[in-house]
Design a protein that fits this description.
Blueprint lengths: L20 H4 L1 H10 L2 H10 L8 H11 L4 E7 L1 H6 L4 H7 L5 E7 L5 H11 L7 E5 L9 H16 L6 E6 L9 H9 L3 E4 H12 L15 H15 L27 E4 L10 E3 L12 E4 L5 E7 L2 E8 L5 E6 L5 E4 L5 E8 L6 E7 L14 E9 L17 H6 L3 E2 L6 E6 L29 E2 L8 E2 H5 L6 E10 L3 E17 L2 E20 L2 E10 L6 E8 L3
Parallel strand pairs: 1-2, 1-3, 3-4, 4-5
Antiparallel strand pairs: 6-15, 7-8, 8-15, 9-14, 10-13, 10-15, 11-12, 11-14, 16-24, 17-18, 17-20, 19-24, 20-23, 21-22, 21-23, 21-24
Helix pairs in contact: 2-11, 3-10, 3-11, 7-8, 8-9
Length: 563
């Protein structure tokens, strides 16, 4: 699923488990025979026959391979694909012994379609594929419906607009908490693509044999060797009817269903090639990320600035992660910066800074924080891999947008003061019957601390501790979903503008002196900067916090803004 952790389990995005090549060969058949699941996989695949015309592009590829033409297959996805090695390479070789079969595993752990639209050129198109499998359903779970459809549709249309468009197979992997496959299914059906619903197949197989999730999976989403064998067989059975199908005409591309312009020219520009930025220098790729990076641009100087000018409507960054690193601010055109932590785990991560910029010239400012309170873990090296760009086609306008107030000098002057855990009071938990496994919907529900008069709510103190992070799950000792309220006070000598820096697991609302300042709808572990004005004297801060599927905590810091 989500981020690549290189063996370190993460609450939301653990890394796929590893196994030898032998597990993907004859041993997987042994697993099947021992469990008696081969006939079951066949019945599941046959029961889910696709409508006529679905998969016509794959039938054409198979027909060419039967004639002895080469077949190049690329699997694009996250850690599930990376660990599964694309699943069907050996099967393709068995079906087409007269053809030169090339199987490329372009799975990249911890990534979804948001990064896929940028890396498709390097990791898929460059291989000149005839058949592409796309597996992003699980990792796209955190996306809203609009983005999930837009990114997947952008991938499909870009591939289908190639001079020799490949056939496309949509693979919908399973999640113990169930996967939202409707967005990708809508796109697949719109373009007449074959899709394989592995969630349904897994559920039916486990129910039929009276087995548990752990028989197929090492965690909530990552198959073990037996699970990958099951995935491979179900995909193979879904493809088998197309082996004998007569190639039909592939219809022209329909009009997009996305409500926003598709992103059809995504690229990854290696930042390590920059040589004239003071305070920054080249480093070889970290060993654990060498497969995906071409070196990194790095600095650890407090306050150092990296200016990046570009044209495009969509921009992001791909960067290395390590627990010994620091954080950086990223601001577009002087706008409110994002705080990007690169030290919460090991591996790499990407952030889409904006996907809806106006056409034309833009500026990205990357600034490392000034020396900060050590417990905040703001300072340390930052290693940038790629600038992610899309929407760079000829523009009707090339003028620069209006410049915002957060100039690099302002970012370099931010000095955040943390609020210790012991300064918070809390009350709860509060719950509502939603049937959901997280508290997303509870954030919009009303609970007594939002409306009760002061003194009507019993507030408890956080036990004294030398820490900045408040772990509500540990404090409560109860299972999610739940909502908890926390309050504190900030004392300032004079009125002025500030930035609140809130790091929260999943969901929150923030009030400053009784006025709603921000609503946060996830995802996990982000740092949100919230502009506010504090009055001279005492200022009341109230947080409403909702638990997610993994993690229930928060921390707060604040910094004055230079006048």
């Amino acid at each position: 699923m989500g981020f690549f952790s290189f063996g370190l389990a993460q609450p939301k995005t653990p890394c796929g488990d590893r196994y030898s090549k032998a597990d993907r060969g004859p041993m997987r058949l042994k697993h099947w025979l021992l469990m008696g699941l081969l006939p079951l996989a066949l019945s599941i695949a046959m029961a889910d026959a696709n409508p006529p015309g679905i998969g016509a592009d794959i039938s054409s590829v198979f027909a060419r391979a039967k004639r002895g033409e080469p077949l190049r297959y690329v699997a694009l996805g996250g850690s599930i694909t990376q660990a599964g090695a694309g699943w069907i390479g050996p099967w393709l070789r068995q079906q087409f012994p007269q053809s030169d079969i090339t199987s490329i595993n372009s799975g990249m752990a911890g990534t979804g379609s948001a990064l896929g639209i940028f890396r498709v050129e390097r990791d898929v198109i460059s291989h000149q594929p005839d058949l592409v499998a796309i597996e992003y359903c699980v990792n796209d779970g955190y996306l809203n419906d609009e983005d999930a459809i837009r990114y997947m549709e952008s991938l499909i249309v870009r591939l289908k607009q190639l001079p020799k468009p490949p056939a496309i197979l949509i693979i919908e992997a399973a999640d113990k908490n169930t996967v939202n496959l409707q967005r990708h299914r809508k796109v697949a059906q719109h373009y007449g693509l074959l899709e394989v619903d592995l969630q349904k197949s897994v559920n039916e197989a486990l129910a039929a044999k009276g087995r548990g999730w752990d028989d197929f999976f090492s965690d909530a989403v990552h198959p073990n060797a037996t699970g990958h064998a099951f995935y491979a067989r179900v995909i193979e059975q879904a493809l088998e009817p197309l082996l004998a199908a007569s190639p039909g005409a592939v219809p022209p591309l329909p009009q997009p269903i996305s409500s926003k312009p598709l992103l059809l020219d995504g690229t990854m520009s290696a930042l390590a090639f920059r040589v004239d930025d003071e305070g920054w220098h080249y480093e070889p790729s970290p060993p654990q990320a060498a497969r995906f990076f071409r070196g990194v641009l790095t600095s650890e100087l407090p306050g150092v600035h990296l200016p990046v000018s570009f044209r495009g409507t969509c921009v992001g960054l791909l960067y290395a992660m390590n627990k010994d690193q620091g954080v950086f601010f990223a601001s577009l055109n002087g706008g409110l910066p994002k705080v990007i932590k690169t030290n919460s785990r090991d591996g790499y991560a990407s952030t889409i800074l904006s996907s809806d910029l106006s056409p034309g010239e833009h500026r990205l400012d990357v600034v490392l924080p000034v020396a900060s309170e050590p417990r905040m873990r703001y300072n340390g090296p930052v290693r940038l891999g790629y600038l992610l760009l899309a929407g760079t086609a000829p523009q009707a306008e090339t003028t620069k947008p209006d410049d915002g107030p957060f100039h690099p000098e302002i970012l370099a002057s931010l000095k955040f003061i943390p609020v210790p855990a012991s300064d918070w009071g809390w009350t709860g938990p509060f719950r509502a019957e939603t049937g959901a496994f997280d508290a997303r919907s509870m954030i919009s529900a009303s609970f007594p601390p939002e409306s009760a008069e002061p003194g009507e709510i019993e507030w408890r103190e956080i036990p004294s501790q030398d820490d900045l992070w408040v772990d509500l799950g540990k404090l409560l000792g109860t299972e999610p979903p739940a909502t908890v309220f926390a309050k504190t006070q900030l004392e300032v000598a004079k009125e002025g503008k500030v930035l609140l820096s809130l790091s929260v697991d999943y969901f929150a609302k923030v009030w400053v002196n009784g006025r709603l300042a921000e609503t946060i709808a996830g995802p996990h572990g982000d740092v949100i900067l919230i502009p506010a004005t504090l009055r001279a004297g005492t200022n009341d801060i109230l947080l409403k916090l909702g638990s997610g599927s993994s993690g229930f905590g928060f921390s707060l810091a604040w910094s004055r803004l230079a006048e």
